[in-house]
Amino acid sequence: MKFALIDNHQMVREGFKALIEEEEPDWQVSFEASSYSECLQNLGDIDIDCFVIDISLPDRNGLEISQLIGKKLPSAKRIILSMYEEKSYIQRALDLGVDAYLSKRDAAEELITAIHSIFKNQLFLSPSINTHFLKPQKTDSVLNKLTPRELEVFKLLAQGFNAKQVSQVIDIMPKTAHVHRASIMSKLNLTSQIQITKLALEKGVILIDEIG
User: Fold this and answer.
1) Which residues contact 26 (CB under 8 A, 6 or more apart)?
2) Contact, 180 vs 150, CB < 8 A?
3) What is the spatial distance between Cα 67 and Cα 199, in angstroms, rounded to a whole number?
4) Torsion over CA of 11, 16, 21 and 22, rounded to 10 degrees?
5) 107-128: pLDDT as tens digits
6) How far apart are CA 153 and CA 190, in angstroms?
7) Three-class SS of residue 103?
8) In this structure, are residues 206 and 198 in contact, taking their beta carbons and an 8 Å threshold?
9) How far is CA 147 from CA 142, 153, 199, in A?
10) What does DSSP assign to residue 164?
């Protein structure tokens, strides 16, 4: 079974590699990356059964690479390592279909247990995480007011992009980006950039470390 470790700390990767390869003779860490971009560059060329992904990467959020892996390699298992135990982080990871969410304080002790569990098709969450608040996701009626394009713009605005920057990111005219922004604020009854960011955080559309 082949594993990939996506973490920007070499010592952490070395420790997890030792744990994994000592557990079973056919378990092998065959790919390592220290950033989103490094993983992205190689994603089409690797054959991996399980990705272990740090949520805090230097260039992008680890959930973003997890989402991409879910689309490009749907059969691969995904384990998220995180220092965050707040509901918004955990729920967003589960909404993306990850197979395990490990608190970093439990990771060294629980990683192997998590791997065995997810290959039995069992969701694994760190014992330290309070799961009583985790419920099946329901579509939020507030954000349902937005079109798919407006939701895309909403996320970028919440991350701190202005309308001109939004237009460059998603390749639309600046005037169109301003129209989307005005429509979003009208539909959601918002009056400022701060309110956009606050709502996005509350709804789990973005995480706090995604704010520029």
Assistant:
1) 1
2) yes
3) 22
4) 100
5) 999 999 999 999 999 999 988 7
6) 14
7) strand
8) no
9) 12, 10, 17
10) H
**27 neighbors 3 (Cβ within 8 angstroms):** yes
The H or E element containing residue 52 is: strand 50-54
CB atoms within 10 A of CB 55: 25
Q: Exposed/middle/buried for 6, CB within 10 Å: 0-12, 13-18, 19+?
A: buried
Q: pTM for this one?
A: 0.67
Compute the distance between CA of residue 156 and CA of residue 40 in angstroms, rounded to an integer.
21
The SS3 of residue 43 is helix
Structure tokens of 189? 């009854």
CB 207 within 8 A of CB 63: yes
Residue 125: strand pairing partners: 101
Q: What is the pLDDT of residues 3-57, one digit of tens each?
A: 999 999 999 999 999 999 999 999 999 999 999 999 999 888 889 999 999 998 8
- For residues 5 and 131, the model is more confident at 5
DSSP string, 68-85: HHHHH-TTSEEEEEES--
How far apart (Å, rounded) are the C-alpha atoms in residues 115 and 187? 44
Token representation of residue 6: 């996506």
Helix (H) or strand (E) holding 204: none
Residue 101 is which amino acid?
Y
φ, ψ (nearest 5 deg) of residue 123: -65, 140
- Distance, in Å, from the CA atom of 195 to the CA atom of 191, rounded to the nearest integer, reads 7
